[in-house]
Design a protein that fits this description.
Order of helices and strands: HHEEEHHEEEEH
Radius of gyration: 23 Å
Distance between the termini: 43 Å
Number of strands: 7
Helix content: 40-55%
Length: about 200
């Protein structure tokens, strides 16, 4: 009987150690996968900002519809992203904000601030309501503007995602050293948790 008790205790300890090893392995695997996805989101925001900086060297050739189409394509190719967006200082994208005042798809003051999101399985470009002044003090804009470097925001509830907890990867856009806007990628945190 003593041998059965000892064998049972040894077997139980071995099972416990195997379970812990399996749990550690799964944790490292999922952490690595999540780390890659988060890194990819920051890299995509960085590439978007760099591409826009390059495009603006030929401002006469930039197009708002073509830029929005690029944002839509970026979101389409990255199912893990909730949203892709850019926000420019007044007249710093194409110098034509006044031409877009009160037009469908643009801010009331014509500011260029497109936000492309996933909604019910499709890609949708959100119509910006309000004006640049109503968005210029949002933390996702002021943080990279003040720091003059890329950042990941602390989690926040986003009304465009049914108040889901979200984080944004945001990269400032510069022209000749002057801050002119930001490019961002949004991720819903519950999607990250579900990935685990």
């Amino acid at each position: 009987a003593l041998m059965i008790v000892v064998a049972t205790l040894i077997a139980r300890e071995q099972l416990k150690q195997e379970a812990m090893a399996t749990a550690r392995e799964m944790t490292f695997h999922h952490a690595g996968a999540i780390s890659v996805q988060l890194g990819d989101a920051m890299a995509a925001a960085r590439a978007l900002a760099n591409t826009l900086e390059g495009s603006l060297r030929h401002r006469d050739l930039v197009s708002r519809p073509a830029t929005i189409a690029s944002l839509e394509q970026l979101l389409l190719r990255n199912p893990f992203y909730f949203g892709v967006w850019i926000q420019f200082e007044p007249n710093k994208f194409d110098g034509r904000d006044s031409e877009f005042e009160n037009r469908d798809g643009y801010a009331a003051d014509g500011a260029f601030m497109p936000y492309v999101i996933r909604e019910k399985g499709s890609i949708k470009t959100m119509v910006t309501t309000g004006t640049f002044d109503e968005y210029k003090d949002k933390f996702y804009y002021t943080l990279p503007k003040a720091e003059k470097k890329e950042c990941a925001t602390s989690p926040y509830a986003d009304p465009d995602a049914d108040n889901a907890m979200m984080t944004s990867f945001v990269v400032p856009i510069f022209e000749n050293g002057e801050f002119i806007g930001v490019a961002g990628i949004d991720l819903v945190l519950t999607d990250i948790v579900e990935e685990i």
